[in-house]
TrEMBL record:
It comes from Aegilops tauschii subsp. strangulata (Goatgrass). SUPFAM superfamilies: ARM repeat (SSF48371). It comes from the Eukaryota. One of its GO terms (cellular component) is nuclear envelope. This is Uncharacterized protein. One of its GO terms (biological process) is protein import into nucleus. One of its GO terms (molecular function) is nuclear export signal receptor activity.
Length: 642
């Protein structure tokens, strides 16, 4: 009934229909569905998450309705009020407009039913007095008032002055009741979170203080206050994300960290999200406290990690996301090299964070492998949070300053299992991957600085189902090869990693065959993808053709065979496309000095090869020569500007 009535009022703007009967409709049908009842109280205690899904949704849909699977009489009543509130009331005609027969403004500018009927009806219910609990009719009715306000989000967002007045006079007083009703406070938090864009700056501090009071509300003897804290967490996050700066970032950080524990996974998952928001926004204001914060929440995460290689629970995933936010906040205010005292303190913090991350990753990756039953096909840990875990590993790798730290943090062991995991990772659509690519480049840098024995190039047994042997570099390269055709951004990142993997590792340590194998594999993958997009010039040509160039510079004969394997014209097709990309007219053109140098070296080699093949008068050679000249001029300009 509520849904049908809502559509009728919306379509017909039925002021005449609804006005005479509004109060009786509210009293008899709509408001009873909104008021607090015994079922709400029972569900609050017995199935708190379901109560929150039904009554405190994290995000309101439009007024046509909430999630279909949560349809209830209360939802229907709220939806109807939302439609009614936006429906037009009677037209307002001024005396002046009556005298102007041709006045086009006549009949326009009327108020909405929300202003004329809905808000006045709700205003007749007073804020409860001190000492009233859930058994009080005043509390039960005021719960209905708050639910109604929540359904008026679209209406109130268009009338910010009214929204501010309601929050000041009808919502904030609830936080000062003794005792505070958790049923009312949780709904008040939720409404504030929905209306943060309406709040004036001068009012935000009072609201923030009220939300902090709610965030710290402890459970009563017979009533859980988890919905209160959860809704307060969401509202505080909304405030911060909309530009509010808490007066004391550290105090907020401490309150959140103190509440995070392994005892309540659902609440901790929400607090991890809030923690990430705080750190993202606070940056340098919380940076000094990050090492201690990392240590505290890492203990919780390690206690929540499953002891068997099952997919990680959501709370662990949220915990890893919070750790990544702290990495980004810690990196942003790194002190100047000239400030020795600050640099020394920062380095101590960096080492402490790296050690904590190592402990977490050992528990996440190494311990499950050690405890794995030998009868299982694969001893790999689950591919959960691969991107976030890669960010932590990358932080460890760039924090290392000595061989002692490498041993203490089990860096080589972590890198081996990480490379094994990403070699078989294939979740491009479900998870970010920038952290994995960054970790690959940092791993190569670490190899150059500390891997004097060539450990990264040694054949090692895999924990995967096939149990074959492969090197760390080969496993990483497997990930890069599959990334080439995953999606455009991954193609760019993968091609950038190809340059790093072919030219940075020390392949002189008896592993030249490995390098050739990688070059051929990369060449096949990049050229195969290029052929699929070669019909017309496109931006994706640039990374693909430069990646093939990196392979070609290493092994010209082998890569030429790759290019001509399925098509005898493959080599000249690639050379012609490279000439196009290297020309001054191509967009996006070569920009960095390293790109231009690679193009120059490759074009010069290609020209020599074409001349040796007696192709001196061909268009492809002419194009290569022109692009070579243009690239040389471009390189000189870039070097002078740099």
């Amino acid at each position: 009934m509520f849904e049908l009535d809502g559509h009728v009022f919306s379509w017909l703007q039925g002021w005449r229909l609804v006005s005479p009967h509004f109060s009786s409709l509210m009293d008899s049908a709509i408001f009873p569905a909104l008021a607090l009842n015994e079922k709400d109280i029972a569900e609050w205690e017995e199935d708190t998450d379901e109560y929150m899904r039904k009554n405190l949704p994290s995000e309101l849909d439009d007024i046509s309705g909430w999630a279909e699977d949560l349809f209830t009489a209360r939802k229907s009543a709220i939806n109807l009020l939302g439609v009614l509130a936006l429906s037009k009331g009677p037209p307002v005609v001024s005396a002046a407009s009556k005298r102007k027969k041709g006045d086009k403004s006549k009949g326009k500018g009327g108020s909405c039913i929300g202003e004329l009927l809905v808000i006045p009806f709700l205003s007749k219910f007073p804020v409860p007095s001190h000492g009233e609990d859930a058994s009080s009719k005043a509390v039960q009715n005021y719960f209905g008032v708050l639910m109604a306000y929540g359904g008026l989000q679209d209406f109130l967002s268009e009338r910010k002055d009214l929204a501010v007045t309601l929050i000041r006079n009808r919502i904030l007083p609830l936080y000062y009741l003794d005792p505070c009703s958790p049923y009312l406070i949780s709904t008040a938090n939720w409404i504030i979170g929905q209306l943060t864009l309406c709040l004036p700056e001068a009012m935000c501090t009072d609201i923030y203080n009220s939300l902090m009071k709610a965030l710290s509300m402890e459970d009563a003897e017979d009533v859980t206050c988890y919905p209160v804290r959860a809704s307060a967490s969401g509202a505080i996050a909304e405030l911060i994300e909309n530009g509010y700066a808490p007066p004391d970032w550290v105090a907020l950080l401490q309150v959140v960290v103190k509440r995070i524990s392994a005892e309540d996974e659902n609440e901790s998952a929400l607090l991890f999200q809030l923690l990430g928001t705080i750190v993202d926004a606070g940056q340098e204001k919380v940076a000094a406290h990050i090492p201690g914060t990392v240590s505290n929440i890492a203990n919780t995460i390690t206690n929540l990690l499953p002891s068997v290689p099952d997919p990680w629970p959501q709370v662990v995933e949220q915990g890893f996301a919070a750790l990544v936010a702290m990495v980004q906040a810690w990196d942003s205010p790194a002190p100047d090299e000239n400030k020795e005292h600050e640099k020394s303190a920062w380095q101590l913090g960096q080492t402490a964070i790296a050690q904590t991350f190592s402990t977490v990753l050992q528990k996440a990756w190494l311990l499950p492998v050690e405890q794995m039953e030998p009868t299982l096909d694969s001893a790999l840990p689950p591919p959960s949070c691969v991107n976030d875990a890669s960010v932590l590993l990358e932080f460890i790798l760039r924090s290392i300053t000595s061989m002692e730290e490498i041993t203490h943090m089990k860096v080589f062991e972590l890198v081996v299992i990480w490379a094994d995991i990403i070699a078989y990772w294939d979740s491009w659509e479900e998870e970010e991957d920038q952290g994995v690519f960054n970790a690959i480049k940092e791993a190569v840098s670490f190899h150059q600085r500390f891997d004097s024995s060539g450990f990264f190039l040694k054949m090692l047994p895999s924990q995967s189902a096939n149990g074959s042997q492969s090197s760390v570099i080969s496993r990483v390269s497997s990930f890069v090869t599959r990334a080439i055709a995953a999606y455009p951004s991954a193609t760019w990142r993968a091609c950038s990693c190809i340059h790093t993997l072919l030219h940075a590792p020390d392949f002189s340590l008896g592993a030249e065959d490995t390098r050739m194998t990688l070059a051929v594999t990369f060449g096949e993958a990049t050229f195969s993808y290029f052929k699929g997009v070669s019909d017309s010039p496109a931006g994706i040509w640039k990374p693909l053709l430069l990646a093939i160039s990196s392979c070609y510079i290493c092994y010209p004969d082998a890569i030429q065979q790759v290019l001509c394997k399925d098509d005898g014209n493959g080599y000249t097709a690639w050379a012609s496309a490279l000439a196009q990309v290297s020309s001054s007219s191509f967009t996006p053109g070569l920009s960095s000095e390293s790109e231009i140098k690679l193009a120059i070296l490759t074009l010069a080699t290609v020209i020599e090869r074409l001349l040796a093949l007696s192709m001196g008068g061909t268009k492809v050679l002419q194009d290569c020569y022109i692009s070579l000249m243009e690239s040389c001029i471009h390189l000189k300009d870039v070097q002078e500007d740099g």
